[in-house]
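TASK: fixed-backbone design
INPUT:
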């Protein structure tokens, strides 16, 4: 089992920055990849960014060049650095981890609210 706890959300003005953190515990050695998803009111949850165990990253087009995902394996923590935030980035952000021999299991954090507004 893997447990995830997010932190770092809040209210920020357009153009501002936030850094989200996702601390993993439990069977951390079985984690294959970690990602950040978001869900805005009335919309489906969508993938924002993903980082593999090897460090490969991918991003949804709307955040490329503004968001950066990275992992600190020594701290068992994944981060999402968000710059140049826009009102349309407003959502609840969820951390996700794939774990197990083939990444067949999925863990989710509780979510953290990000609001971009003036």
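OUTPUT:
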């Amino acid at each position: 089992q893997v447990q995830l706890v997010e932190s770092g959300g809040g209210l920020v003005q357009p153009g501002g920055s936030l850094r989200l953190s996702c601390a993993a515990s439990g069977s951390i050695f079985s984690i294959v990849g970690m990602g950040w998803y978001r869900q805005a009111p009335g919309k489906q949850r969508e993938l924002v960014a993903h980082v593999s165990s090897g460090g490969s990253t991918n991003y949804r087009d709307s955040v490329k060049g503004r968001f950066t995902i990275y992992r600190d394996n020594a701290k068992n923590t994944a981060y999402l650095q968000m710059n140049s935030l826009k009102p349309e980035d407003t959502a609840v952000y969820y951390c996700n981890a794939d774990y197990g021999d083939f990444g067949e299991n999925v863990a989710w954090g509780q979510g953290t609210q990000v609001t971009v507004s003036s």
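COMMENT: The longest strand covers residues 18-26.
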